[in-house]
Amino acid sequence: MARPKKSKIRPVPGYILVKPEAQEKTTVSGIVLPDSHEDKPQQGTVISIGNAIYDDGKEILAPCKAGDTVIYREWGGKEYKENNVELLLLKFDDIMATIQD
User: For residue 70, what are the contacts with CB-CB under 8 A and spacing of at least 6?
Assistant: First the structure.
């Protein structure tokens, strides 16, 4: 898998920067869906990760690493655009799983 392009954005502790995967705009039967019909993507590639956070003195590390493909909560995070590329800032807790190659 190709390593994602570096971003100038550096997440603060407890956050992860993800590039959402593009959604299919055509159904299996060939019907083209309008933009208003798209669901928000819930899968993407990790670009960079903020430092660990601490809760009651316990260190909480990121659940993934740069380059991983992750599944995240549908309405989690803050959308951001850099160089016409959609990015998403997510909390560590918004990551639900990593996809193994």
Answer: 16, 18, 43, 44, 45, 46, 63, 64, 95, 96, 97, 98, 99
Tell me the per-residue pLDDT of 11-29, one tens digit each, with 9 for 90 and over: 999 999 999 987 666 667 7
- What dotted CATH number matches 15-23+32-99? 2.30.33.40
Query: Which tokens sit at 38?
Result: 């798209």
**Cα 47 versus chain centre, distance:** 8
Give me the residue label for tokens 């992860």. Answer: 16
Tokens of 67: 């380059």
What is the reported pTM?
0.77
Q: Determine the Cα–Cα distance for residues 14 and 78; give it in Å rounded to an integer.
A: 14
d(C-alpha 57, C-alpha 73), whole Å: 27
Domain boundaries, the chain: 15-23+32-99
